[in-house]
């Protein structure tokens, strides 16, 4: 893995703490991953980001590193084959779409392209793993080292409602917060409704204060203009993607179903 352009400058006792973490990782990594992945899992930039996320506490950073390795092994992140996630790719559920004002590459997630029962949660998570790994490469090439995400609910209807989304979102929170330390710049939720606020109720206890501060609710597309260039558009070239179509209002029946699911999750 190439060193990123935005190499983080260490000061004070930080170089020594990095060396301490590297020494522990060097001993452990051959036990956990195959030989061709040792360099990737010993990557200096990632270890520095772990230290930053854990306030330069070496023991905490090492524990998080081990969780990161085990998590990637669980989802076979280094062996994702295109054919396994081809359906998600064909549907363009998520795509890289320009950059924010700071130059961070932006991943757009189109909620209206997801339908319950269409994909199992593990496949969906592996698809997002694939997309985020792509984004990290883009961010390092751009020199920012971070990504932004827009969860775009334009055009969402009750047909897109998926009860498994609560489980998926909790796992995704762990994915970003624990396994991509210091990589997320901002998460923008476009057109938040009762369902979104309900999901946030479920996942909020799993969020650190730092992660909570990175979430911005945008009621209209013009709210994104604070963070994105004036001419920024959400589009992957498909017809009608630039037309603002907020999601349908929730019915009373749907609200009750959501409230029941929240109760089951807590």
UniProtKB/TrEMBL annotation:
Biased composition (Basic and acidic residues): 242-259
Matches recorded under PROSITE patterns: CRAL_TRIO
Region (Disordered): 238-266
All residue ranges annotated as the CRAL-TRIO domain in the record: 84-246
Alphabetical list of CDD domains matching this protein: SEC14
Signal peptide region: none
Domain of life: Eukaryota
Protein name: CRAL-TRIO domain-containing protein
